[in-house]
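Protein modeling request. Please complete all fields; requests missing the sequence field cannot be processed.
Requester role: graduate student
Desired output: 3D structure, token encoding
Chains: 1
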Amino acid sequence: MLTLTPFPGIPLIHEGDNLAEIILESCKLANLQLANGDILVLAQKIVSKAEGRLVNLADVEPSPCAFQLAEETTKDPRVVELILSESNEIIRKRPGLIVVEHKLGFICANAGIDHSNVQGLEHVLLLPEDSDKSAERLRSSLEKTTGTKLGVLIIDSHGRAWREGTVGITIGISGIPGVVDMRGKDDLFGRELQITQIGAADEIAAAASLMMGQANEGKPIVHVRGFPYPLRESKLEELIRPKKEDLFR
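Delivered output (249 residues):
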């Protein structure tokens, strides 16, 4: 049985906070002991905060390119400068929105830069610099302390080109398959599956995002038990469709 449990007692996170220690303390509060095969899902914001990815807009000097794009999109030129610095390329733009390919490889709005749940009107939060490494460091620390085999996901809320509403997706991964390949297996009637590949990490991310909430719930870490597939090593790129196959570019 798949069960998801939001961890209680997670404090506001600041730069330098040890997330592994915070998770272990929350396990005690929840009367929960980590076991082999468990997955820990963390909201991107607490990882970014712990890694010092908070930026004061007063310290940002926009470039001429940022000023031009800000005028086209009616956005703060300082935020636009950060979007440009965090992106590989601009995919689409309209007033209020800049869709980019983030340096981490995925397509997202405004390079994932956000004001919500960030203290200070002049501060914004960037995504982790290398979210796979962030997930790996956390997993390694927890496994070393607990002696268990774990998976770690870092997730964020993203919109989708063809549907309304945001959905939790994986932006950092360690120790859990991003995609589970079902090709070659039989369906209920013995027909061999030809194209089925399950975005297992994103399915867990979406479920955990429901538990976390999007406003002031204060539940940025979710424990998952009963993942129906074997854990294995993977990387974020496993989940990203190659550009040559992306029909929505």
